[in-house]
Structure formats: structure tokens, C-alpha cells
Fold this sequence. Notes:
Blueprint: H1 5-24, H2 30-35, H3 44-55, H4 58-75, H5 79-99, H6 104-113, H7 118-131, H8 139-160, H9 165-175, H10 177-194, H11 207-224, H12 226-235, H13 237-251, H14 261-286, H15 292-319, H16 326-348, H17 354-357
Helix pairs in contact: 1-4, 1-14, 1-15, 1-16, 4-8, 4-11, 4-14, 5-8, 6-7, 6-15, 8-11, 9-10, 9-11, 10-14, 13-14, 15-16
Amino acid sequence: MNRRFDIDYLKVISFILLIPFHIILNYTNESYIIYGFKLTETNSTLIEFMIRSFDGWRLPLLFMISGIGAHFSFKKRSNDEFCIERVRRLGIPLIFGIFFLNLLPIIINSLAFESLSIKDVIYTSWINGLDRSNIQHLWFILNLLIYSIICLPFMIINRNDTKKRFKLIFKRMIKSYVGLIWLVPIGLTIIKLNTLVIDQLYYGQGVEFIIYCLFYIIGFYSSDNVKEFSQSLKTYKYHIIGYAIISSVILLGIISIDLHDLIMIGIESLFSWTWCLLAFIWANTFHKKSNIIINYLNKTVYCMYLTHIPIILIGTQLLSKTNLTGLESIIGLSIITFVISILIYECFKYIYPVNILLGINPETQKIQ
């Protein structure tokens, strides 16, 4: 199976961008809801624009990439081997993250600033942390695990079906102009309009759960039809660029237009989908060859994802005691988080079972 170096580029860049994005969230009203505290705002207008620019397509893109990864994993394994691999790669790091990694900031904050004994710190951090549904950023991994379970029967049917009905349906969709560009935004709009709003214990439930599952499935079948998908992206490249620009101008408020809520939801859906397609066009056009830096970072990004939020939260608590400006703290904390994540990877990549707990796969330390 030929390695998709363009997907490696997308995966690495998408996950690394999460570091400054989650740091920027510290300067928004959402920070208190997500992290429990908020830094002084540096430039609310600029930050809001940056968040809105990324927020519409970064998660859909990540779930598409994850669907592609699931296709690679499933294709080279038996059904039982795939289930074991999903539990090892998703389930074990998820449990470790919830019961240890995500509680570290609470423990360190209590020891450093509240003068509690270690016994009291461990007790209060576990009780308070778990009581607040201490899943934080790990909802992404939880959703991937659930999607793997939900989609497994369809993956098995697709593998055993000699006529490849699911594959042919997706192939017909992506080869047409309407199917490639408009079918997904229309489907997203319908989902958003007809999904009940529920109280969420964490992000990624409710309508988001359905939407991200859709992108996961699209990623899986785009990998199963990689030649047709790539060709359609080339064929309709300029249409995709045009729609991405138009939806961005309207959605990001570059031009103020008063539109009906239904139309705005449709534009939001078009924005998400066309920017995902643009990312694949960019990667497929410019990054189809192996790169030693990307190959290395590709091995580190899962560990980086698991550990970056605890590092950011600890760093944020320390930064709150300084007089650094917002921009300085964002840049500085991004670099520190990146470096510490890499050091954690290097320290534990060959130490069993810590490497498994941190999502490091010893079998793939050498990328072909």
C-alpha cells in the first residue's frame, strides 16, 4: 500500500495548529467554560476573527483525516485485528488521559498555589476533576472510538461485498459537480436544521456528533476512491476556490450582508466543506513527496495531541502571574508546548507500556 504523504502533511499541520488555537481560546469567554479560567483579552476583535476563520473547517478536516487513517488501518488488518488496534490506539490513551493527564493541571495548581497536602490534592483533584466530566479535548478520541464501532459493520460489508456498492455510490457522487461541491453542504444544512439541541457534557455531542461522523465516513470512502477523489478535486478546483472565497467573505463578516438564518446555515456548511476540499487540493498539489521533518512529526502528533492541553493549562496558570502581553504569551506558550510535547515523545517512545498510554505506536517508529 503506497503511503499518502499529502495526508501526512495535512495531519501534521492540522494537529500542530491546535496548539495556538487552544491557547488563543484562553482569551475568549469560552475559556472559562472549557478550562475554568480566562486570561486578560489582548484584542477581542482579532481573536474572534482568527477563531471564526479556523473553527468552521479544522475539526471537519481532522475527522476526514481520521476516516482516511481508519481506512488504511482496516485495509491491512482483519476485522478482529482492527478492533484490537482501535482499542489500543484510542481506548487505552483515552482512559489514561481522563484519569491522569487531564488531572495534572489541577494537581499542580493545588500544590503550587493552594498549599494543600499531596493527599488532599490527589483526593480533591480526582473528585472535582472527574465530577466535571474531565474529558476536555479527549472528546475527539472518544468520538473516534464510537465512530469506529458504529462504522465497523459497514466497513465489513464493504470489504466482503464483491460488487462494492458503497464504494460505487461514493464514486458516482464525487465525480459529479453537484455531488462533489453541493451534496455535503446541503446534507449538513439539513442535519443542523433537524437535529434536536441537547445539554452537552462535553463538546462533540448533539449535532456535532452527527456532523463529524459524516466527515469521518467521507474520509473513509474518499480514501477508498482516492484516484477519483483526486481527479475530481483537480477538475473542479477553481469552482471550489471560488465558493470558499465567497462563503468566507460572507461568514467572516468581511462584507456585512443581512441574510436569513437558513441561508447563513447553508453558507456556514459550504464554508466548512469547501475549505476541507481546499486543504486536500493544496496537499495533493504541493506535498506528494516524502519529507523527513513531516515524517518525524507524523509519529509525534498523537502524543502531542494527548499532552498539549495539560501543558497549555499549566503554562497558562503560570503566565497569569506575569505581565506578558497576549501576543507574547500566545507565541511563547505555543513554542514551549510544542517543545515539551516533543520531549515527552522522545523520552517515552520506546518505554513500554508508557508509550502505549501516550498513543505512541512502537511498530510505526520507522515510516517507509
